[in-house]
Amino acid sequence: MGDKKKEHTILKFFKRFIPSTNGRDSKNHVPQIYARSEHNVSRAQISDNALKVLYRLKKAGFDAYLVGGCVRDLLLGREPKDFDVVTNARPEQVKAAFRNCRLIGRRFRLAHVYFGREIIEVATFRGDESEQDDLLRVHEDGRLLRDNVFGTIEEDVWRRDFTVNALYYNIRDFSIVDYTGGMQDHAEAVLKLIGDPEVRYREDPVRMLRAIRFAAKLGFKISPETEKPIHTLAYLLEAIPAARLFDEVLKLFLSGYGVQTFEMLRHYGLFKILFPATEQSLAKQESEFPRLFVARALKNSDERIARGKSVTPYFLLSAFLWEPLQDRVKEKLQRGESEINAWQQAVNEVLSEQVKVVSIPKRFTQSMRDVWFLQSRFNRRTGTRPYRLLAHPRFRAAYDFLLLRAETGGADQALVDWWTKFQFADEAEQRRMTQPAKKTGKGRRRRRNHFRTDNKKKTEQ
Ligand code: ATP
Ligand code: MG
Question: Cα(69) to centroid of ligand 1, in Å?
């Protein structure tokens, strides 16, 4: 305890020499108010449940605003993913105003208001956290440690990341309140961090990933000042817990803009932090193959999302790690390992290294293993084996993966065609297709090894 006190005193002393805010003057700031007639956010675009929450808070005498991504997306005429509300009501007061409400979060308490499957998140304005004594300590989540400090809208605005994410839609008069020039930036399609970019990235390095994610998703440019430090600070992401990076990876690649996101992450030197082994394969000069393969996987999943179809994270992750896996298998075969051992070991190594950076839940790594191991089973097309493979719970994903490999030159198109036909063939046709080849004068047909390893001699039948 004594130590803690001492630490506090020392921190207080040093803080006198540290600017208390991020290079911005949070007080004495006059917001721009955009009246209802001066913007295009209409209530018809806002979820009924979000409106109910806003009106109820207003009726109870509190201020209530929509904030963040929903306002940004509404201004673009897009349907927001979710609606976030901020208010000057304390969490307990929010809870008292709604029957269907639960408080969550230990450090900073938030209210969740439930309407069937829709949850409206209601946060209380956060105060000027930089005035806290624990400024310099690091949160277990990779962000700076902060306590539950409630504040006003004037304070809340400065903790947000980008100016376009710091616009408040006021339910009282349907105006938009803008402290940071976010409306102008939005009109110019520019992402600008609030405050000094380097300070803001150091506070929370995940903001670098968010910059890329929003740039790709919204088609916005990252402003030069916001862009500049990314290259040099990318390494800071290494300190972010793997579980948080997994959440970010899902948002980065499963939002329907995977291809652009991937290209941008590579451009800014961020991809190599998230997927070091993949980056190594990508960086190899000799072939275009890996880049094509990863990009094609992302393109396919972007297209699926655009068509309203579901996408599974494990499919993309299997694609990301496929080429590193090939390299690893090759090495092991060259060292004289048996095919099966080489595969087992390579899969284990590639996965265990990857989950140190981006923690992939077990249920996904298991499916990734299935997709990879099933690839070799496609080569066996006689007897009962094809039927067993067809009945495997991961058949569909493995088949899609095979398609992807064929599209980028990594598997025989004839093999894919066979499986495409087999799946939809009637019983008699399937029986005919799986008959062992007759021994004619020509002998048995040779099959290529579809793992693309150097072990070309191996044939499987
Ligand atoms: P979307 O939900 O479309 O992915 P969003 O902007 O709503 O985008 P959220 O993660 O839902 O993103 O966060 C809501 C808001 O909270 C943001 O708009 C921003 O104002 C603030 N915010 C979220 N994460 C951070 C962060 N790491 N640093 C600063 N502010 C953040
Ligand atoms: Mg959001």
Answer: 6
Question: Looking at domain 280-433, which CATH architecture does it have?
Answer: Orthogonal Bundle (1.10)
Mean residue pLDDT of the chain comes to 87
**pLDDT confidence of residue 17:** 46
Asked whether 206 lines ligand 1 (CB < 6 A), one says yes
Ligand 1 mutation target, pool 210, 218, 249, most atoms within 8 A of CB: 210
What's the confidence (pLDDT) of residue 310? 87
User: What's the pLDDT score for residue 443?
Assistant: 47
Give the pLDDT confidence of 239-282 residue by residue, as tens digits: 999 999 999 999 999 999 999 999 999 999 999 999 999 999 88
Selecting from 3.40.50.2300, 3.30.460.10, 3.40.50.12160, 3.30.70.890, what CATH number does the domain 2-240 have?
A: 3.30.460.10
Q: H or E segment at 176? A: strand 176-178
For residue 110, pLDDT beyond 80: yes
Question: 279 in ligand 1 pocket by Cβ < 6 Å?
Answer: no
Q: With contact defined as beta carbons under 8 Å apart, do 226 and 211 qualify?
A: yes
Which residue CA neighbors atom 4 of ligand 1 most closely?
Answer: 69
Q: Is the pLDDT of residue 26 over 90?
A: no
Task: Report the nearest atom of ligand 1 relative to the CA of 210.
Answer: 27
pLDDT for 127: 86
Structure confidence by residue, pLDDT tens digits, 278-291: 999 888 755 566 66
| pLDDT at position 86 | 98
> CB neighbours of 325 closer than 8 A, spacing ≥ 6?
346, 347, 350, 372
Instruction: Kindly identify the ligand whose nearest atom is closest to the C-alpha of 72.
Output: 1
Q: Among the bound ligands, name the one nearest to the CA of residue 201.
A: 1
DSSP 177-228: EESSSHHHHHHTTEE-BSS-HHHHHHH-THHHHHHHHHHHHHTPEEPHHHHT
Residues of the chain with CATH 1.10.3090.10: 280-433
In whole angstroms, what is the distance from residue 198 CA to residue 337 CA? 48
For ligand 1, is residue 410 a contact (CB within 6 Å)? no
